[in-house]
Amino acid sequence: MASHLQSDSEHDVLIIGGGVAGLVLALEIAEQRAVTLLRPSSDDQGASRWAQGGIAAVLSPQDDVEAHVADTLVAGDGLCDERAVRFTVEQGPAAIEWLLALGVPFTPDVSPGASYPYHLTREGGHGARRIIHANDATGRAVVDTLLAHVRSHPAISLRDDLTAIALIGDQAGHCRGAYCLDRQGHPREQRAHDIVLATGGASGLYRHTTSPNPASGEGMMMAADLGAELMNLEFQQFHPTCLYDPEGPPFLISEAVRGEGGLLLNVHGERFMPSVDPRAELAPRDIVARAIDAEMQRTGSDHVTLDIRHLGDEAIRHHFPTIYAHCAERGLDITRTPIPVVPAAHYSCGGITTDLEGASNVPHLFAIGEVACTGLHGANRMASNSLLECLVFARSCARRLARPTPFSTAKLQHTDWGNDPAPLALIEQHLEQLRTLMSANVAIVRSDKGLSDAAERLADQQAELAPLYESAAPTAGLASLWHAVRLARLTVRSAQSRRESRGLHFNPDHPTHGEPSPLPSRIRLDADER
Fold first, then answer.
1. Where in the numbering of this chain does the FAD-dependent oxidoreductase 2 FAD-binding domain appear (predicted)?
2. What is the CB neighbour count within 10 angstroms for residue 439?
3. Do 224 and 509 touch, CB atoms closer than 8 A?
4. Residue 135's closest CA among 104, 176, 107?
């Protein structure tokens, strides 16, 4: 190990990632075990805070568990694990009550005769109103509430000065901690009894995303390097409606806008979804995103529009204050003008294979939230099931961690770091090259030829980067790029192996569902790939 590596004292539970999943887990396990939560400041720009729509759960007397389960299975297009779906849906109401007890300011329903105290909206794929929300900024409200509780908890050490770049393994194949960089860029060992990844998905592999600071699959590859299994990487969800503004940062236009009656129009002002699917604008996201993509190609345009003018000024300002204000800041009055929108990378349905308690196949390594693949989403995540998954699996993982298993004492496997800094411009150049390639060849629609070309070019890119990664001083940017390029290759490999079109994976060379029943795509790195 290089001489400049520093080691901290061992932690009990080390959580990497401070979105909703990481924060919930920290609060739930802190009553039994000491927690260290690594939450860099960049987490404030992550996916959790930008979640607008809400949390799906069976809360209304007019709704029931079987209906939510059935809707989720339909959206997942035959690839959901029904056991995981049922577990998640059944645990949903208790998780919402837990958030309410913490003081999350969900929007009340003040209408006469309301059957539930809080307003419930409806989103694509759902057959009922079951989305509880805090206006149109649910993620921000939940994160702010959780973070306030975490900061005041005496058993939680919140660290914003460390960025994890790799995991520490031992010769027994157990996870023993993480290699991190401090604010000065020095690598530091953070050893722990149990390590939980809550690092988010891989939308950052693409040029257009719904988050200003998307993860690029770093946690997935960190786990894979220790032998963790990855599953369903080919299923990358593109949210149908991201604000189209080439000059500004990405901004999500919530699914709830369509849930409340928003209509999708092409650039000629024509509605097109009713001819695509009987559910029209409320069809699952994969169908809507592909329809928008096809309409853009048909009309030769770079966006479509989402029209809510017919809802009226009062309803728009009441239901969507954040969206209204943000669009107004960009010179767009959505009460008078349709919103220009375009599909953008939004959510990774694949990730680290886990059980219902968040455990991976690597002892002492857990994963929760978007970095994990529980089987809940199958081939396509249904709207607002993501924050639900964060809540349910973080709470389930906490129950598992309350029963700690014996700690490995095998010898650690160390990593040597170089000393020469990698040129920042080179890192940015490679990342731009990666995102351009993935957006062109491995996005909403991907063909055999496009996937083959991507596989070849990504292999070349990894070969070019390998000497630099092995010799350069560690930086967060270089580590992220290295993880991203290799995860992109695995994503292409998974897409090439699925000789059908299903859910979020659509290949016109194989346009129909395959037979027999589909199986998850599972990948483990060979020893020479780690």
1. 12-387
2. 16
3. no
4. 107
Query: Which domains can be identified in the chain, with CATH numbers?
Result: 6-235+349-401 (3.50.50.60), 242-343 (3.90.700.10), 418-519 (1.20.58.100)
C-alpha to C-alpha distance for 262 and 305, rounded to whole angstroms: 10
DSSP string, 140-204: HHHHHHHHHHHHH-TTEEEE-S-EEEEEEEETTS-EEEEEEE-TTS-EEEEEEEEEEE-----GG
The residue behind tokens 């959510």 is: 347
Give the strand order in the sheet containing 351-353. Answer: 372-373, 351-353, 230-231, 522-523
Burial class from Cβ neighbours inside 10 Å (0-12, 13-18, 19+) for residue 409 reads exposed
Sign (positive or negative) of CA dihedral 478, 481, 482, 483: positive
Which residue in the list 140, 258, 285, 290 is annotated as catalytic?
285
Per-residue pLDDT band for 43 (boundaries 50, 70, 90) equals low
Cα 468 to Cα 483: distance, rounded to the nearest angstrom: 13
In this structure, which amino acid lies at residue 1? M
Per residue in 296-343, pLDDT (tens digit) is 999 999 999 999 999 999 999 999 999 999 999 999 999 999 999 999
Handedness of CA 46, 48, 52, 53 (dihedral sign): positive
* H or E element in which residue 346 lies: strand 339-348
Residue 52 to residue 384: CA distance in whole angstroms: 9
Phi, psi of 134, rounded to the nearest 5 degrees: -110, 90
The C-alpha atoms of residue 371 and residue 3 are separated, in whole angstroms, by 32
Q: What is the pTM of this model?
A: 0.93
Q: Please say if the pLDDT value at position 471 is more than 50.
A: yes
Strand partners, 306: 264, 339
In order of 46, 208, 433, 451, the CA distances from 438 in angstroms are: 21, 11, 9, 9
What pLDDT shows up at residue 4?
A: 46
Residue 7's pLDDT is 55
Task: Determine whether 447 is exposed, middle or buried from the number of CB atoms within 10 Å of its CB (0-12, 13-18, 19+).
Answer: middle
Taking residue 140's Cβ as centre, other Cβ atoms within 10 Å add up to: 18
Burial zone of 469 (CB within 10 Å; 0-12 exposed, 13-18 middle, 19+ buried): middle
- Cα(457)–Cα(463) distance, integer angstroms: 10
Q: Tell me if 207 sits within 8 A of 435, measured CB to CB.
A: yes
Q: DSSP assignment of 219-284, as one string?
A: HHHHHHTTT--EE-TT-EEEEEEEE--TTS---B--HHHHHTT-EEE-TTS-B-GGGT-TTGGGS-
* d(C-alpha 527, C-alpha 496), whole Å: 22
pLDDT in tens, 351-381: 999 999 999 999 999 999 999 999 999 999 9
CB burial of 359-369 (b: ≥16 within 10 Å; e: otherwise) equals bbbbbbbbbbb
Burial class (CB in 10 A: 0-12, 13-18, 19+), 426: middle
The answer to whether the CB of 380 falls within 8 A of the CB of 238 is no
